[in-house]
Design brief:
The chain has 207 residues and is α+β, with helices and mostly antiparallel strands. It has one domain: Glutaredoxin, CATH 3.40.30.10. Helix content is 54%, strand content 12%. The protein has nine helices and four strands. α2 runs antiparallel to α3 and α3 packs parallel to α5. The N and C termini lie far apart (42 Å). The relative contact order is 0.16.
Length: 207
């Protein structure tokens, strides 16, 4: 299937951020998570992820210049986010995607799950890995424009360094990741996403 047809298919069956939050809550209440792996560890990651998303929804701040840039973008865009309920990076970044997508009424944002959609995910691998979250941006006709993810450049380097040389426990590394995201406050992701948009789209000033 051609990529634009695949994107249209998955966008049309995607769901809203509000639906996603409610579904994550429901999964937790059933001692479950999304995705292929179901165990207590993954459920615990999901509980932590849900708390982070709720917190980011309250505290995430986007500077006025960035808001103005996204507000002035004229094209109608469709944004599809690949995620999973248990994903630590997604718990920090999906709220950022949602907030940026909410700035402009020409943007339509939907989410979908990675493990339920392997054909889609296969088009957006990172170093041959199914890393998430991924933000996919399309035009009104579902033509692929660009994507961003799975994490800011600085965090991606930390992840790759750890994978190449795991010199501490995985839980210790996850704690460091959490601290980094909290200290960064979403700024790295917001700036990188803005720069990516600027490569492909032109902001039209409002008269």
């Amino acid at each position: 299937m051609e990529l634009n047809n695949l994107l249209e298919k998955h966008f049309k069956k995607g769901f809203s951020y509000a639906h996603y939050l409610n579904e994550v809550e429901t999964l937790i209440s059933q001692n479950k998570t999304s995705g292929a792996i179901q165990n207590d560890l993954m459920v615990n990651y999901t509980i932590l992820a849900e708390r982070r998303m709720r917190r980011w929804n309250k505290v995430l701040s986007i500077d006025s210049l960035t808001q103005e840039y996204f507000h002035q973008l004229e094209p109608k865009l469709k944004i599809l986010i690949i995620t999973e309920a248990w994903c630590g990076d997604a718990s920090h970044l999906v709220p950022v995607f949602h907030r940026l997508g909410s700035i402009n009424q020409n943007f339509e944002v939907k989410l979908t799950y990675r493990d339920e959609n392997p054909e889609l995910m296969s088009h957006f691998l990172t170093n041959n890995a199914k890393s998430i979250p991924i933000m996919i941006v399309m035009d009104e006709a579902y033509n692929f424009l660009f994507s961003w993810g799975p994490r800011p450049i600085q965090m991606q380097k930390r992840v790759m360094d750890y994978k190449n040389k795991p010199d501490r426990s995985y839980e210790d590394f996850l704690n460091e990741v959490q601290v980094w995201y909290n200290q960064d406050k979403g700024k790295s992701a917001i700036e990188e996403i803005k720069q990516t948009f600027e490569k492909f789209l032109v902001a039209v000033p409002v008269n």
